[in-house]
Specification:
Elements: H1 5-16, E1 27-36, E2 48-49, E3 51-64, E4 70-74, E5 79-83, H2 96-107, E6 115-121, H3 131-146, H4 153-168, H5 175-182, E7 187-192, E8 198-202, E9 208-214, H6 226-243, H7 265-289, H8 293-309, H9 316-327, E10 332-335, E11 343-349, H10 353-368, E12 373-375, E13 379-380, E14 384-385
Parallel strand pairs: 4-6
Antiparallel strand pairs: 1-3, 1-14, 2-7, 3-6, 3-13, 4-5, 7-8, 9-11, 9-12, 10-11
Helix pairs in contact: 2-3, 2-4, 3-4, 3-5, 4-5, 6-7, 7-8, 9-10
The chain binds alpha-D-galactopyranose.
The site of alpha-D-galactopyranose has 11 residues, from helix 5.
């Protein structure tokens, strides 16, 4: 007999925390992973991003437990935490995404009483597909429902981002949490990260497909240079502000002034990426509307080159995969997400992925001894209650 995700989570909760109130009080939720078509490392520089949710999801079961502590269970780590403390857990690091949401919710004056929560999922971890943001947004949404916080999807995203920034310790932008909270079927979101204005765009290129290749180089943003990049962007912004005090974000800077504001070599490279990405995002949206996959693919390669050479968040393995894809005349490819490993987003004609991937996988294995994986996906919807 195959058990449903709901049954597995319900059974795990009753096995782990024996004295539970009746099962019918359990509610089920799920939150997706995400891809990003273009607009990488610009969401903390006020740029526009163009992400979408995918049909890899984190599933959560939650209920009030009528006590003054939280009982949390990770099905995938087969590990539990029974606590009323909101301290960062060095041991159960998976629990911090949940405790972080509770801690930030309380800071905002929202009521969080005792609850039970179990979760599982199929979003590959450390692959740049935002599995941790999915846990945060799934938790924020679930708690908002069971404690009747009545938050909007935008507020759920902001609460989850502050959990990541202030509790987990990664100074991420708003892209991941926002798309996971607000995504719709078959659509990308064009999100202006300065104003949080957004709109939906259909991702429809008949005869062409997007897929992912996982380099299997695990990134951990906490230990990576992600926070350094953010500081470099901030120091470049400050220098621009000295001559343009009205400037709010690096994304709005005047590219003609790149050489006249006294940037260091590093700051100049970071700024060039941010400003280059500004036009690539516009171009991609235009190519998508014109149903021009060739133009779109070219922008993906240009984005990768800029992430690798100017923003320096790629690595030998992801560069290798993108180079191999290019040499096989694949339409477009680039690393996505925070970088330093993780997944490559690929755009190509339908029906080619099998043969391209099997050749590439062999080459990649002999170069790095790593088993790359291919993920096919559909564009999916954001966090939801699964009734
Ligand atoms: C990570 C962060 C996002 C964003 C991307 C890079 O996924 O969580 O906020 O900065 O990296 O675009």
């Amino acid at each position: 007999m195959t058990l449903s995700v709901k049954e597995i989570l319900a059974q795990s909760l009753s096995r782990t925390f024996q004295d539970l109130p009746d099962q019918s009080s359990l509610r089920f939720f799920s939150a997706p992973g995400r891809i990003n078509i273009i607009g990488e490392h610009v969401d903390y520089a006020g740029g526009t991003v163009f992400p979408a949710a995918i049909d890899f999801r984190v599933h959560l079961a939650a209920r009030k437990n009528g006590r003054d502590y939280f009982r949390i269970y990770s099905q995938d780590f087969q590990s539990e935490l029974n606590t009323n403390s909101l301290e960062y857990s060095e041991k159960e690091t998976w629990a911090n995404y949940i405790l972080g949401v509770v801690s930030e919710a309380r800071k905002k004056g929202l009521t969080v009483d005792g609850f039970d929560l179990a979760f599982t999922g199929n979003i590959p971890q450390g692959a740049g597909l935002s599995s941790s943001a999915a846990v945060e947004v799934g938790t924020a949404y679930a708690l908002s429902q069971i404690f009747s916080w009545d938050l909007s999807r935008e507020e759920i995203a902001l609460l989850s981002q502050s959990a990541e920034n202030h509790f987990v310790g990664v100074n991420c932008g708003i892209m991941d949490q926002f798309v996971i909270a607000t995504a719709k079927h078959s659509s990308c979101i064009s999100l202006d990260t300065a104003s949080l204005a957004y709109s939906y765009h259909s991702l429809d290129l008949p005869g062409f497909e997007f897929y992912l290749i996982d380099s299997k180089v695990k990134h951990n943003l906490k230990e990576s240079e992600y926070n350094d990049r953010r500081r470099e962007v901030e120091s470049a912004t400050e220098k621009f502000k000295k001559i343009s005090p009205e400037l709010q974000n690096l994304s709005d800077a005047d590219s003609e002034k790149l050489n006249s504001v006294g940037l260091t070599e590093i700051e100049r490279k970071r700024a060039e990426h941010i400003l280059g990405e500004r036009s690539r995002v516009r171009n991609v949206i235009r190519f998508l509307e014109a149903k021009d996959p060739i133009g779109l693919g070219r922008e993906l390669y240009l984005c990768h080159q800029s992430l690798s050479e100017k923003f320096e968040v790629s690595c030998a393995e992801t560069d290798f995969i993108v180079r191999e894809l290019y040499s096989r005349n694949v339409l477009g490819a680039r690393m996505i997400g925070g970088g330093f490993g993780g997944c490559i987003l690929v755009l190509d004609k339908e029906g080619r992925s099998e043969s391209v991937f099997s050749e590439l996988q062999k080459e990649y294995f002999s170069a790095f001894g790593l088993e790359a994986k291919i993920y096919r996906f559909r564009i999916s919807e954001g966090v939801r209650e699964d009734t």
